[in-house]
UniProtKB/TrEMBL annotation:
Name of the protein: Mitochondrial coenzyme A transporter SLC25A42
Cleaved signal peptide residues: none
Transmembrane parts of this sequence: 186-208
Gene encoding the protein: Slc25a42
Membrane topology per record: Multi-pass membrane protein
Pfam families: Mito_carr
Catalytic function, reaction form: AMP(in) + ADP(out) = AMP(out) + ADP(in); ADP(out) + CoA(in) = ADP(in) + CoA(out); ADP(in) + ATP(out) = ADP(out) + ATP(in); dADP(in) + ADP(out) = dADP(out) + ADP(in)
UniProt keyword terms in alphabetical order: Membrane, Mitochondrion, Mitochondrion inner membrane, Repeat, Transmembrane, Transmembrane helix, Transport
Any one biological process term the GO annotation gives: transmembrane transport
InterPro entries registered for this protein in UniProt: DNA_mismatch_repair_CS (IPR014762), GDC-like (IPR002167), MCP (IPR002067), MCP_dom_sf (IPR023395), MCP_transmembrane (IPR018108)
A GO cellular component annotation in the UniProt record: mitochondrial inner membrane
Family recorded in the similarity comment: Belongs to the mitochondrial carrier (TC 2.A.29) family.
Length: 318
């Protein structure tokens, strides 16, 4: 009788410990998700604001038949500043923030979750993922974020290439598009976006995580210095954006067709039109050199900010 009571008491204590352990684990998981969302949102906002004038200039060239050169790009920046004022260089950045904050928050948070899921599946943990799952985690994170925030990307592109008189604010863009072009226009260009984000996000996260892993292996230090993170992020941005750039040009053309005089078309017809009118290299890689300047800066800031915020929040929580 005594033994039965004792065994029951032990089982009850074990069950209680299991429940409490599960509750603590669940609370920790929620904290990690919130931490990733907050860090990702800040990372995206800082990175995009830093390169907004260069980003706007790149979009203007992407959606026009004007030939791109560094001289022409900086001339456009200069005349925009002279004619419209300094803050006009950040026109469309409010729409960028509305898009990029949820996009970056979702992308970084989803990446951490996919890393955990794939880590459990393959028997690895976090940064120790082998190459293919590492690439897959990045591609899935980018696809998830792009799918959930795409209309905001279209609105931002429209605001970047139109004068202030056409669209007064973000809500005005949504209203005019829905009235004049139909709600389906809000997802025009979605297919090339997803096709482009798979190599872009996949290679960006893969490159950054791989460089951190190599650094850990050869330096003997568990964490790189902030400037090393910036360099790793810059390399990640350079590789990811170069791989997906032609689809980025097609996406911008499709997004802005309603206000630039181009015909709405499919991915293939837009590709053919660009190649026929401007040539394969000059058309599909127009503004790439501008991306080589702004992309590494933006991605470097983004990855570094995310990592440092994660470290800070972990210290505050502990």
């Amino acid at each position: 009788m005594g033994n039965g009571v004792q065994e029951g008491s032990v089982r009850l204590r074990e069950d209680t410990e299991t429940v409490l352990s599960g509750a603590v684990s669940s609370k920790r998981d929620h904290r990690q998700v919130l931490s990733s969302l907050l860090s990702g949102a800040l990372a995206g906002a800082l990175a995009k604001t830093a390169v907004a004038p260069l980003d706007r200039t790149k979009i203007i060239f992407q959606v026009s038949s004007k030939r791109f050169s560094a001289k022409e790009a900086f001339r456009l920046l200069y005349f925009t500043y002279l004619n419209e004022g300094f803050l006009s260089l950040w026109r469309g950045n409010s729409a960028t923030m509305v898009r990029v904050i949820p996009y970056a928050a979702i992308q970084f948070s989803a990446h951490e979750e996919y890393k955990r899921i794939l880590g459990r599946y393959y028997g690895f943990r976090g940064e120790a993922l082998p190459p293919w799952p590492r690439l897959l985690a990045g591609a899935l994170a980018g696809t998830t974020a792009a799918s959930l925030t795409y209309p905001l990307d279209l609105v931002r592109a429209r605001m970047a290439v139109t004068p202030k008189e056409m669209y007064s604010n973000i809500f005005h863009v949504f209203i005019r598009i829905s009235r004049e072009e139909g709600l389906k226009t809000l997802y025009f260009g979605f297919a090339p976006t997803v096709l482009g984000v798979i190599p872009y996000a996949g290679l960006s996260f893969f490159t950054y995580e791989s460089l951190k892993s190599l650094h850990r292996e050869y330096s003997g230090r568990p964490q790189p210095y902030p400037f090393e993170r910036m360099v790793f992020g810059a390399c990640a941005g350079l590789i990811g954006q170069s791989a997906s750039y032609p689809l980025d040009v097609v996406r911008r053309r499709m997004q802005t067709a309603g206000v630039t005089g181009h015909q709405h078309g499919s991915i293939l017809s837009t590709l053919r039109s660009i190649v026929r009118e401007e040539g394969a290299v000059r058309g599909l890689y127009k503004g790439l050199s501008m991306n080589w300047l702004k992309g590494p800066i933006a991605v470097g800031i983004s990855f570094t900010t995310f990592d440092l915020m994660q470290i800070l929040l972990r210290r505050l929580q502990s």
